[in-house]
Amino acid sequence: MRFAMPNGGSEPIGQRIIVLPQDEARADARDPKSGFIDYVPVGSIVKGAALMAGGEGKTVDCTICHGPTLRGLGEVPGIAGGQRPTRSASSTT
Q1: Residue 55 burial (10 A CB sphere; 0-12, 13-18, 19+)
Q2: Whether 79 contacts 60, CB under 8 Å
Q3: Can you state the percent helix, strand and coil of the chain, rounding each to 5?
Q4: Are strands 76-77 and 72-73 parallel, antiparallel or unpaired?
Q5: DSSP of 38-85, one letter per residue?
Q6: Torsion angle, CA of 88/21/28/89, rounded to 10 degrees?
Q7: Which pLDDT band, with edges at 50, 70 and 90, does 80 fall under?
Q8: pLDDT bracket for residue 82 (50, 70, 90)
Q9: Cα(52)–Cα(93) distance, rounded to whole angstroms?
Q10: 5: Cβ–Cβ under 8 A, 6 or more apart, which residues?
Q11: What are 16-66's pLDDT values in tens digits?
Q12: Which residues contact 79 (CB under 8 A, 6 or more apart)?
């Protein structure tokens, strides 16, 4: 889990996905309802949607295995929502 540093400035995210808590105190206390904000590169959501739908023949439609909502189907795990990193002592930004 990453936390923004006070007065830490900003930088372009490049091709990274940055996940920050909406409320740092609640996230640090491990409140399961604290909420997070995902910062993603421009265009990545559109690219991901195209890839999920088969990627113009590069892959198969993700819903075949992961279900129509991508939350899992049978023993196949979900790939949408609910996946968050765990915090380590050195994972601050």
Answers
A1: middle
A2: no
A3: 25, 15, 65
A4: antiparallel
A5: EE--TTHHHHHHHHHTTGGGTS--THHHH-TTSSEETTEEP-SS---P
A6: 20
A7: confident
A8: low
A9: 30
A10: 92, 93
A11: 888 889 998 998 899 888 888 888 898 888 888 888 888 888 888 888 888
A12: 62, 66, 70
**Strand positions, DSSP E, 1-93:** 18-21, 36-39, 72-73, 76-77
The total number of residues shown for the chain amounts to: 93
Query: Is 55 in contact with 48 (CB distance < 8 Å)?
Result: no
Q: Is the dihedral of CA 63, 69, 73, 79 positive or negative?
A: positive
Q: What gap in Å lies between CA 63 and CA 53, rounded to an integer?
A: 8
